[in-house]
Design goal:
Elements (H helix, E strand, L loop, with lengths): L7 H13 L2 H15 L5 E6 L2 H16 L3 E3 L5 E2 L2 H6 L7 E7 L5 H12 L7
Antiparallel strand pairs: 1-4, 2-4, 3-4
Helix pairs in contact: 2-3
Length: about 120
């Protein structure tokens, strides 16, 4: 029988660990630096293990897609299937998101794809 609930102490220690290690600040710094470090067509893949990390990754990738520097490759996060979570219970909280850096030649193409997904009628010059 699987446990559906997480022990209350787990969340408390997770919060302490995140605070002490400044994990959210580190993730924000990484997500800001990554597009500058990638070459055109380079890919950024992020695996998050809780909702605070995932929100930072999602918002940063979305912002990069909006300004045309990134093309989001995973419309929704990739999560572990039931078979994987049965073998590896820790994988149940993992979410994978990916994006590709747009270069001078493919920047407008990535921005067009983003605009099409959002349903915008704004024309690109």
């Amino acid at each position: 029988m699987k446990q559906d609930r997480i022990h209350p102490a787990t969340r408390t220690f997770q919060a302490l660990r995140i605070y002490v290690n400044r994990e959210l600040d580190e993730i924000k710094a990484l997500m800001e630096a990554a597009p500058k470090l990638l070459k055109p067509s380079g890919r950024l893949v992020v695996i998050s293990f809780h909702s605070l990390e995932d929100r930072i990754a999602k918002d940063t990738l979305r912002e990069g897609a909006h300004n045309g520097t990134l093309e989001i490759l995973t419309r929704k996060p990739v999560i572990a299937e039931e078979e994987e979570t049965d073998r590896n219970p820790r994988s149940r909280s993992a979410k994978l998101r990916a994006a590709e850096k747009q270069g001078p030649g493919n920047r407008d193409q990535g921005l067009r794809k983003y605009e099409q997904r959002k349903g915008s009628k704004r024309k690109l010059s």
